[in-house]
């Protein structure tokens, strides 16, 4: 562009010199030829620049579509080796490393539904750049030429004003088109960098993307939002905290579910830490943790014992024990009722279960072992019945409250004459 400007200045100086010589010598015979020769020279320079731009654009289109020159002078589309594609596919979830430099060729294994193959600006950016350059160059040249002739005998002030009134706006339009084309091409280049930074994954850390392309995090977030609005990433989303770029709905839902689980876990930890400051809540947590430990031991023993009969009894024991501790966790006031249950019944029951497991693992099942196993199996039925009665007793207060509520309700209905007996008396 600077070379063209220097050429235009040189042509303008020649025309001004010719006009000055003609006025001094009062000989205008050569003036027309000088102007025509200078304009033709300028047009040749413009055409040369346009041809250069056109060739570079043509080469760029070929490289973007995967075309490569062959020794015979023909162009043939290249087909990637399938084994290389498979090796690349295996690396889909590898971490992003290195810097993401300019990526003139956009090659990705991501689905077209996730990354468009024809991003906006791929064609229009080239057209704006080419035609904007041509318009700006030609009409800027004409403006310089006729501006230098303005007010001379060759071009009156009125004619000069009229001519510049046409050429200057056209040159301005060309400049706007050129700027627009350059802007579209820069956005397309950033789009390619983002695709390269994704590294064929469906998610990426915004901070890592920003570092890889040398931009700020806020700039990348705004830029990605604009590209999402243009369907360059049709199904993409940004995480609520703006930390991650997610290419599809499924990945976004998985991320949201993960964040929700982490939040719930954090809240549970904070609640537990807060409860540990309260002696009663701390006692409840310790009791529930101990109960869950017993339940886990029952399950492990059940998995280790192959017998179906004892397995059914242990399944029943695990279920009722779990219900007891779940209820107490919701109703901490019932914890005192479990003292004897936790201090004696559960430890004794676990001792019997471990003994049965030890007997069952013996390679030789003698009379004593068989008899002891039968006794433990019978005892497990007794224990299960007792635990179920204990669980039922936890609802005694609630049952009494329900009974009291029913009695009060029946009394109110009778007082209002709304019971069945009252209707019978009316008849």
TrEMBL record:
Protein name from the UniProt record: 5-bromo-4-chloroindolyl phosphate hydrolysis protein
Comp. bias (Basic and acidic residues): 48-65, 74-83
UniProt keyword Transmembrane, yes or no: yes
Residues passing through the membrane, by range: 126-150, 162-183
Coiled coil: none
Species annotation: Cuneatibacter caecimuris
Residue segments, region Disordered: 48-83
Keywords of the record: Membrane, Transmembrane, Transmembrane helix
Record InterPro entries: ChloroindolylP_hydrolase (IPR018770)
């Amino acid at each position: 562009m600077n070379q063209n400007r220097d050429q235009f200045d040189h042509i303008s100086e020649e025309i001004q010199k010719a006009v000055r010589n003609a006025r001094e010598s009062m000989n205008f015979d050569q003036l027309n030829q000088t102007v025509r020769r200078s304009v033709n020279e300028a047009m040749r320079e413009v055409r040369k620049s346009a041809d250069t731009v056109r060739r570079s654009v043509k080469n760029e289109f070929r490289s973007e579509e995967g075309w490569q020159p062959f020794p015979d002078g023909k162009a043939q589309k290249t087909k990637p080796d399938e084994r290389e594609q498979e090796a690349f596919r295996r690396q889909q979830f590898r971490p992003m490393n290195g810097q993401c430099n300019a990526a003139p060729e956009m090659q990705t294994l991501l689905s077209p539904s996730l990354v468009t193959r024809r991003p906006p600006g791929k064609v229009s950016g080239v057209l704006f750049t080419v035609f904007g350059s041509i318009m700006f160059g030609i009409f800027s040249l004409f403006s310089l030429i006729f501006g230098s002739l303005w007010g001379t005998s060759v071009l009156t002030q009125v004619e000069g004003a009229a001519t510049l009134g046409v050429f200057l706006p056209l040159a301005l339009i060309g400049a706007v088109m050129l700027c627009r084309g350059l802007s579209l091409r820069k956005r397309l280049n950033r789009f390619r960098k983002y695709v390269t930074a994704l590294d064929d994954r469906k998610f990426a850390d915004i901070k890592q993307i920003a570092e890889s392309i040398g931009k700020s995090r806020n700039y990348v977030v705004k830029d990605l939002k604009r590209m999402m609005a243009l369907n360059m990433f049709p199904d993409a989303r940004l995480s609520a905290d703006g930390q991650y770029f997610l290419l599809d709905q499924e990945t976004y839902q998985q991320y949201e579910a993960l964040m929700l689980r982490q939040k719930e876990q954090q809240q549970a930890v904070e609640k537990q830490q807060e409860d540990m400051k309260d002696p009663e809540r701390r006692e409840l947590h310790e009791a529930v943790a101990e109960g869950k430990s017993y339940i886990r031991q029952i399950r492990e023993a059940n998995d280790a014992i192959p017998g179906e009969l004892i397995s059914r009894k242990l399944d029943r024991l695990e279920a009722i024990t779990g219900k007891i501790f779940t209820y107490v966790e919701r109703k901490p006031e019932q914890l005192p009722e479990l003292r004897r249950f936790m201090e004696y019944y559960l430890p004794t029951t676990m001792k019997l279960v471990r003994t049965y497991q030890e007997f069952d693992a013996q390679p030789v099942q003698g009379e004593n072992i068989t008899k002891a196993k039968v006794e433990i199996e019978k005892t497990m039925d007794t224990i299960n019945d007792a635990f179920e009665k204990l669980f039922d007793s936890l609802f005694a207060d609630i049952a009494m409250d329900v009974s009291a509520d029913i009695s009060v309700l029946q009394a109110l209905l009778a007082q209002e004459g709304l019971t069945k007996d009252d209707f019978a008396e009316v008849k």
